[in-house]
Amino acid sequence: MSETIKELLFKNGQPDGAYFFFADTCPLCDSKRLKKLFRQWGIGYFRCKECEFVFSNPRLTDKGAYRWYNSDYYNAAMETEHYIAENYTKYYSISLNEYHFKKAIRLFKGRDFPRNVSIADLGCGSGAILH
To answer: pLDDT by residue (tens digit) across 27-63?
Structure first.
């Protein structure tokens, strides 16, 4: 994790309560039946056992989102990702490197999706996974 992110949103190596909140229900269907998948950089990733929505937890508060999305670091990263997307055919973003991209594809391939499935990438940054 970038030291810049830690400086902006973390306190003593953990998500700062001023910028994060912990959701005890699924943000999509409000179910309390959650399964913790893994933890990375102080953030847990959960799957709802009812609707299968996967989300990070804790989540950014409005104050945290404002601080992050208006930071010089985030804006420079997005400019770089847009430049790469427009100028290269093989595209991986700063946040979605080749390893993570291939892992996401394996997860998608492991599902039996109907032919007319739609995917919504919420909080998609520059849209790397949809690209």
So the answer is: 989 999 999 999 887 788 999 999 988 888 988 899 9
Spell out a b/e string for 107-128, using b for 16 or more CB atoms within 10 Å of the CB, else e.
Answer: eeeeeeeeeeeeeeeeeebbeb
C-alpha to C-alpha distance for 126 and 99, rounded to whole angstroms: 18
CA dihedral over 21, 41, 8, 82, signed as positive or negative: negative
| pLDDT tens string 62-100 | 999 899 888 888 888 778 776 776 776 565 555 556 676
- CB-CB neighbours of 46 under 10 Å: 19
Choose among 27, 22, 21, 18: nearest CA to 67: 18
HSE-CB at 52 with a 13 A cutoff on CA atoms is: 3
